[in-house]
Amino acid sequence: MVELCDVSGTLGEFSLVDISLEVKDGEYLVLLGPTGAGKTVLIEYMVGIYRPDSGRILVNGRDIIPLAIDQRNIAYVPQDYALFPNMTVEKNIAYGLESRRVPGHRIIEIVRRIMKRLGIDHLKDRMPLNLSGGEKQRVALGRALAPGPDLVLLDEPLSALDENLRSTMAKGLRKLQQDTHATFIHVCHNFEEASEVADRIAIMNQGGLVQTGSLDEIKARPENEFVARFLKTRNIFHTVSVDGAVSVNGNTFRTCSDISGDVVMAIRSENILIDENPGLKEVETMQARVVDVMSRPHFYEILLDAGMPLVVYRIQNSLSAGDVVTVHIPREHIIVMRRRYTGQHGSFM
Amino acid sequence: MSARHLSTTSQSGRKSDLRLFRLVFLSFTGFMVFYSVYLFLGNVDQLFVGEAAQGSGELLRWGEDREVMNMFAGGFWRDGYFWKSLNLTLMITLITTIVATVTGIPTAYALSRYRIPFKGAIDVLFSSIIVIPASSIGLCLIVMFNYGPLWDIQQELGVRVVHSIFPGMVIASFVLSFAMGLSAWKATFDSINPRFEHVARSLGSSSWRAFWTVTLPLSRSGLIVGIILAWTRAIAEFGAVLLFCGTFAELPSERFSALEHALKIDQADWLSVAVWSQIEYGNVEYGFALAFVMVLIGFASVYIMHKIGAKGYIW
To answer: At A167, which helix (H) or strand (E)?
Structure first.
């Protein structure tokens, strides 16, 4: 198990503040956040490249902060993979085993097994310069996993790949992690990528940890407006809640929340139904006019005017601009969050 | 006019520009090469200084009270002074380069990789040595060793550093050799992403093993180029050696130690200083010959550097 306890540190102008996080054995955790959130800095603290100013990092109960990089048994796969250009693929993968003085015959056996599992045995004698992006990623993973690390840290492993390959490789990563039962911490800034691999997600912003949980949990109950927006929630409104009711441009919604005062109301686009009554008791209903219909790669994006703008996602569509429709929003999918004053940028979240 | 026609026209326009560029470039380069060959062949007889040069009387008119050193007939390579000077220069530069390499490469690595207090100031100091005139460096060394605590130490030990072969020439040539090598070695290490070492260490490698197995192979070309640069800078040194050490050709034999006699570097000068001193004494042709040898050494060094430096890793 990996445990971060109040890890804080300053690197140049950037500060990481009180990061506390637990990762179970065999879990695939994604550290998600925008660029500059502090994800890579946290990874570098865990690898040992830099030392935090305070806090503890425990791996299987052992505080690793006082340990040198080579004593932590944490594998690190950086964004550009950093395959050793002066070594063949086979030598790259064997490097960690040689460092740990594993007997030669065992090295050959382990390297062969890993290359076969990753489908890269045909690349054995190739130099990294001659590999494609996907091949480099697999070699880097093989090199990381060969010594049997306690933890594997992946820093944006898919960012260098094109979109089609990214999805394939994400599935491959997930399968590899499941097969090896290794603990993975994967850093990325892409919500879709996180959704393809994660058991759990930890969202970071401005040097702090904002929320952790499964993808479904975070989608259903984002901690604040930042999380809602980061998870591509399109329907977000600033309003006031009184006795569980909120009002937006003359539309009143009853919610399941007991928060009162300045609030942010959010509704995920896939949870809004058009002309389909779900048969639930607690549903908010209103009339709306179709403003525009846009075709996306995997769904249709429909812009509605219900006295307030609404964005709805549908798999199939027969609507066109100008149509009048009935919109149903299950009350359980109306998210209400407190509008908090951050103090950092003089704005409400 | 169709787009295709325009495209064809612009392509042929670019081709004729390229042809014109090639013509101008080759003409210029060809002119320089042939002119250099012509100059060389026209003056090659000056390498073979014979009595005819003295017979013209022109040399003596420059300063009858000066000795014409090393009277010989034909071929500077028959002159013991030339071989002793070459021997002296190569020996000292070898020592200098080894010392500069052993001290410079770890220094360059530390400056590249570690957070050192006053790192910027150290960088500026070493970089400044390259651009400061060598004569100023020589004067600074004189002040450093002839005054203050270093002078006291020399008095205690009964040694004299200024105007000596060992360690004077080593020190004078070392300063600039080290600075030149350091800039090349540091640039080499700066160009290698430290992430390779981080990954190597995360795989269980010690710092030394990560350096030896990953960084050193990747930096090999750059380090060798740095060593050659350090050596070339040492051998080309003039101002600092002249001011700090002076000349030795005219000194009596007793002035030199048994070691210097054994090594056959007595009554010899640093090669670049020998060029100057021969011209000063009126032996222009001899100076030319020595300069020619230095040019050959310089060309050979640069050629080797290019051959080695052209190989590099792309990552």
So the answer is: helix A163-180
How high is the ipTM of this complex? Answer: 0.83
Q: How many CA atoms lie within 13 A of A1 on its CB side?
A: 7
| A77, A86, A99: residue with CB nearest B218 | A86
- Using a CB-CB cut-off of 8 Å, the residues of chain B touching A48 are 201-202
Q: For residue B196, which residues of chain A lie inside 8 Å, CB to CB?
A: 82, 84
What's the whole-model pTM score? 0.77
SS3 content of chain B, % helix, strand, coil (to 5): 75, 0, 25
Say if residues B217 and A86 touch (Cβ distance below 8 Å): yes
Digitized pLDDT (tens) for each residue of chain B, 315 residues in all? 455 555 555 666 777 888 888 888 888 888 888 887 777 666 666 555 555 455 555 444 434 443 444 444 356 777 788 889 999 999 999 999 999 999 999 999 999 999 888 888 988 888 899 899 999 999 999 999 999 899 999 999 988 899 888 899 999 999 999 999 999 999 999 999 999 999 999 999 999 999 999 999 999 999 999 999 999 999 999 999 999 998 888 888 888 888 888 888 888 999 999 999 888 887 777 888 888 888 888 888 888 877 876 555 444
How far apart are alpha carbons A115 and A139 in whole angstroms?
A: 8
Q: Kindly determine whether residue B217 and residue A86, on different chains, have CB atoms separated by under 8 Å.
A: yes
Structure-token match 């399968």, residue found: A175
Q: Two tokens at B170?
A: 């080593």
